[in-house]
């Protein structure tokens, strides 16, 4: 019987997949899997025969050279750590820098005979060691056989040999296993796997052949060896400081930094290239799209983590990430920059944290930040979408750029704050600072984005009732007002704006902007007449909780009277420039006589802004209006950063290494309301590890006192830094300088 035309019975649907997707591997593509984990190791056999053993096996090899012990010479007082500038690392392993000789001492079973005895020191990294990939490196003494790394016998005494090994200046950076192998007539026998002989090889800014070589001792000391840093924030005319303990030498931090590269499956073979390392790490320091180190949060609600303003150092963050394998909550731009700085300095890449005041977040590369005004000159907040960060922190790292034309090496911008995607991931850089300054924004990586952060124009548009928009004012100097970093060897700030751009209005600046336009950056070309009325907002220093007067000065530079309806708006804003809530609005009318000036004062009461404050306590005032006689739009903007109370940190005198000292932290609640759930953090590089203290309640007007005993571990100058945090008050800090004698 035919079933032609009958409806076929549908096949059952395959079961829906459950569980996580399969991990991508190289199976079927390459014979040897690509090694992407520095923590994975392959045990090298203790004996590799040259031939098949006889009926009775191999004859006894007692008469041949045997290895009894290997001394890694890793004590701080020995030359390895001193010469390689790794003496501050708190580690049980030898840590050296590439391109520079280090020593290992081998004890044999009898005196070494160069004429007949053959041995090699072998270095292995990753799970699939290969000579051709630079992951298996045998080093022979005195060039007995070719080897990528140089080896020489520097000393012989009795049964011991001291071997000098010089890794190439471009070798893989990471944790190596070390073996010693001797040759017998029947095969090669080597030492057993011993984790105490593992060693770390880092980038070397002291050696000219290394891509990260920095030929400035003071800058190198600051950008590689200094653990305590200062990060700048606030406003360009009211700069505040945030102390930070980078802690790149603390126990476990180096392993945590290597784990970051393991976590992103970065091939071991790529880890000698600082360009690749920094680009990969700029994605991994944030958790967007790759489960990286830190979760960003700008909301003000930090219920399930640590508020960004509470952190005092990188160590807790990195060790937590390495131990839990989960992103750490929470971060904002300076936390990303500080932790990234620790990563870079720990691996030996010179780096510093940089702050750009009034940093444009330009996501379309048109070099314009648009502020929309209604026809009468009042700001239209519903249509103003662009934002200018009051400040933004990123990193600069120092390296050559063989992938770019000559002259574009040196300082490179890298930014781990997740703002925009680059090649599909939230990362930024490395972008040559020289390329940014000269408008060569076609060069990789992300130079156009950084260029816009320091060069955008602020364009005020007047929007008619019909929806058409006309530019009425262009401010070409507001964005990228000042770029700061810490002065090497000092606790002062250094302005480096001139490294990013030429002087405003100069011939060089115009040439650079024209060059940037050739590569697709579009600017506003409006040539607008200058209004004959100026509006000036004052610079004020205001403490949290204070009432204050905001005085606006209007200057009429014409020979005729001018009348204006003024719109004065005061808003609480996040430091990213995003509006939180408007707490003040005034609409006065002012009349200014010919060539005269008048002042209009507005009283700002704390009761109106306190309930709206976010953790960075920024008040943004925008005044705008239209001159009735000419129709010209006049605008002015002023950011006021409210000053928080301070912690007082004092330390006992006459400090010595390994002798107990006392630190006292004091704070007085300046408000009438109580502060609840207060946490204080306290730490100092080489002085004391992170210590925390919880206070459930500090009534209004009352004080707290906390004493802590600590034992300094290193001689020299240092700082103890403290932060206080609670839901009602963020960003309270204090610090004390300490000098420790040996």
From TrEMBL:
SUPFAM superfamilies: Cysteine proteinases (SSF54001), E set domains (SSF81296), Transglutaminase, two C-terminal domains (SSF49309). GO terms for biological process: blood coagulation, fibrin clot formation; nervous system development. The keyword Heme does not apply. The active site is at 333, 392, 415. It is an enzyme of class 2 (transferase). GO terms for molecular function: metal ion binding; protein-glutamine gamma-glutamyltransferase activity. Keywords: Acyltransferase, Calcium, Metal-binding, Transferase. Residues 325-418 form the Transglutaminase-like domain. Binds 1 Ca(2+) ion per subunit. The keyword Signal does not apply. This is protein-glutamine gamma-glutamyltransferase. It comes from Cottoperca gobio (Frogmouth).
